[in-house]
Fold:
Amino acid sequence: MASHNPSGTRTLHLILAWGFVGIPLVWGVLQTLRNAVKLFH
Amino acid sequence: MRPLSFLDRDRTVAGPGFNRWMVPPAALCVHLCIGQAYAFSVFNLPMTRLLGVTGSAHGDWKLTDLGWIFTLAIFFLGVSAAVFGRWVEEGGPRRAMFAAALCFGGGFLISAAGVYAHQIWVIYIGYGVLGGIGLGVGYIAPVSTLIKWFPDRPGMATGLAIMGFGGGALIASPLSVWLMARFSTPTHVGVAETFIVLGVVYFIFMMVGAAIVRIPAPGWRPQGWSPPAQQPRLVTSANVYVYRALRTPQFWLIWWVLCLNVTAGIGVLGQASAMSQEMFPGKVGAVAAAGFVGLMSLFNMAGRFLWASASDAIGRKNTYFCFFILGTILYALVPSTGRVGSVGLFVLFFLIIISMYGGGFSTLPAYLRDMFGTRYVGAIHGLLLTAWSAAGVFGPVLVNYIRAYEIAHGVPKADAYNATMYLMAGLLVVGFFCNLFVRPVHARHHMPSVQGEATLLAR
Structure:
């Protein structure tokens, strides 16, 4: 399994990599949604 | 040892146990940054009052001057993707990502100097030319790497990366506004400092992508997966050399498929706010229109992932058929939403249309892989992005000029977009037939062997 392979990718690396791109993206989506709800007011 | 040898292609080959799911975040590191280009317009108004601060003063730049920055950047995106495609393909993704980070981050820093000195030509060179080259090289850098890591799901993999290009604007827009607010003072707008911060942050972010990207070892396959014994008719296992692809009808048919799909979407994307307000006077105001534009950005982004992923199941050609058939029907129905006064249907139709606009971009690399093989798919993709540049001119010109013509001939503003909608539907019908005529590439265009490849490269 990859997470136990010392020469391979650890699960922590995967979490860090996805978090690094996922957190800003989710922040951007939330900001956009906050503006978009004005369409329905 | 050469100082930049860590950028070499052979230094990026993955070791045993490397998890391929590390590669999409590497690609997203680049695409989320360069997607900022779609949000560049947030700087336009502040840059018209760099001298006057509270309002435009004598000597301040005009919006028409500033519009050229984005136009230049998109132009150089297409040109650099076409020119540097082979270099990107043969040099590997890390070197290309590094070059893209230098160009894109450096473009911001040069532009900051242009703002300080109040010399617009410095910004044209900085963001427009250098940044545009960063956009083009960065856009194609991870494409073929992803396709090689995900031979079982190439559409989904490239869709993830290209989704990042759509998502980049969602981050850049509020971030830029926030930074300008932080740096502005009663005597200063804060654009230059914002450019410096963005340049540094984007450079670091893209370098993280360059550091973690890997290419698979020769002969690598996903565990438990083997190529299907019988490939679908439109999927080749051979390779076509990048410049040889230009001599195939398939390249030019797909060029028109992309150009027409993008033309239909890009024209309304830029006019969405004005169109919604003019088609529904009294029902849609400026604030609601801004919300509509935001929703379109979200669907543009989501469509890139969802349609490209769907193409793995239904095939690329069928996915484009969906775009052209559904798009034609929806464009033809848009005028009737204005006549019956249904804002909800208008919004729904355009959200679906814009999801297919995004899907057109993200399904393309996998379509090219199916046609021309994996060896030069990134470079061929780069050449085909010239269709985007062409559509960037056709689309807005068509929408703007037809609207102006209609109004000049007495058509009420609420109906001024009807002719455009029918024209867009017509363009999609043409796109349908271009897609229909796409057949497998003839074997005479295939690269003969490894030796044959070496001979071609030596030429």
In short: Chain A touches chain B at residues 2, 5, 7-9, 13-14, 17-18, 20-21, 24-25, 27-29, 31-33, 35-41 (CB under 8 Å). The radius of gyration of chain A is 17 Å. The mean pLDDT of chain A is 80. Helices of chain A lie at 11-36.
